What we know:
By secondary structure, the protein is α+β, with helices and mostly antiparallel strands.
Amino acid sequence: MTARFSGVHLARVTIEALSPLSCGTGQEGLFDITLVSDANRLPMIPGASIQGVLRRLFGRVAPAEMVADVFGAVDWTGRARDARLIVGHALVHGAGDQPLLEFPAEKAIAADPLLKELAKEAPLRRDHVRLNHRHVADDTGKFDRLAVPAGTRFSLELLLSGVAGEAELVEQLVSLFAHPLFRPGGARARGYGRVRVVRAGRRWFPSSDPLAFRKAREASPADLAGFVRIHPAPHADVLEISVRLTPANPFRIGATGVATTTGSDGWPEGEPRPEHPPGKREKPVDMAPVREPRIAWAGPDGAERGEWRDVTASPGADDGSHLAPGSSLRGPLAHRALFHWNRLSGRFAGEGLDEAALAAPGERPAELEPLLGAVKAGNRLLGEEGRASALLVEDAPIGREGLPMRFALDHSSIDRLTGGVRATILFSEELLMPTEFRLRLVLDCPPPAEGDRAALAFLHALRDLAEGRLAIGARSLGFCVGGEPEFAGRDAGRWQALWEATARTPTTLAVPA
């Protein structure tokens, strides 16, 4: 340590994923996006990924000089300034709510029901399809992403070199883990990486007592014995939008190849059936709604037990297992926002603009980039670098307050020449009819001006979804009717006023005679 440091602050944080969390390796393999793993082949969150997110969030509340002092910096001459903060890797928890520290640990992993599942190459896999400017699947836009399921817990340590009087700074850094924008890993705009702080604590170790520090470091990063507990306060420097949606008809946001065994009325095996069940289906459905495994925790704080709940293997065994992934909701909203931006800007097909100029595939107008982000592979010096999205769309659990109604619907493929049924082309899908679900959005952008076309276009898209003019899911069945959205957090009043303005703005054009 240098002369100005008299010791080190040690902070420990345990976080739990509230949505799938995907820290990718960037390497190609059997899957398009694979998970970072530790020496035991268990998923982890690299300390560098966490440090990058913390630095960005700390810069929102602290001056640049303090950010450079804590996280280090490199000036324009190339001279480096050492960081005072060291962020460790976040290690995954087993069923006993403790991370695995031994290596090799094949026997320990085989004996732990959670680690046994998390050690698989694909604990959870999500399919994604990129949409083109026509709002249909792009031929070359199919990819998959691996993740750990919601409920997965990780623990890590933070080391801050300094003086004893900096406990407030340590707590400020730990509180950033509870920020709505703290989302380690990739695809955060599509609902991945949302976490909560399960427990956290700090402890000061003077440089005059190195043995105490060494003994503390030998313990688990989830052990808070002798630590001062930290309870992070909620942050309100982003806008949060919440709206309840009720499907107007059965719908499916879903997955092919996820078969479930149902009765002919769509009632799953093992669930309470109606008084007069018409009988059991002879075959499972071919296409079913998205259902994902998750981890549930029960027990007192510090002695909780984790349970792997694979709802895909036992349909109907757990409510809240259906969900509308954030990517399935973000895509329709983004494309409808582009439509409204073109409308508000007076850009219409047939008026000197061909279809390519109206909306080029994979590109967005510069005015929409701060809101929806952009992916570019151009020259950074010319300002052609990509931009992160300010709009984050959360996964929406379906049926959290009770199991949704499920129906099995059979389909036949019709020969377009004869009009008859094509032989052997019979398939079925399972549709949901839930009472309602809640859509949650997080928005981190400057306050909208009165005539902000990008903000108006986004709110028009949201109004279309809430008023049954924008379908989600497969086969265009997912029209919903919702209530008024609730705006909370930064600039909520200005967004509320702009939302009310969209109701007064005409949504159709008067065609002159």
